[in-house]
Amino acid sequence: MVSKEVEIALHPGLQARPAAEFVQKANRFVSHIFIEQGEKRINGKSIMGLMSLALSKGDHITIIADGTDEETAIDELVGFVTEKEE
């Protein structure tokens, strides 16, 4: 299991379209993907779970991957949420 705490740099955060993109990326991996914020932990492959967190730019989350491709999954998903828009 691999995890990384990150600050969301996407504007407006993981709302609607970016949340759907995150879930699509997460579903390409065999590993189980989770997102934690505070006491909440959701399945990173679930659009409803992700939307329930209402994550905005500047929020801190922990992305967790557990499985055979966990390193690759963490790298790609962390890169996605920390990508600064120009």
From TrEMBL:
Coiled coil: none annotated. Gene3D superfamilies: HPr-like. It comes from the Bacteria. Residues 1-86 form the HPr domain. Pfam families: PTS-HPr (PF00381). Belongs to the HPr family. This is Phosphocarrier protein Chr. It comes from Gracilibacillus halophilus YIM-C55.5.
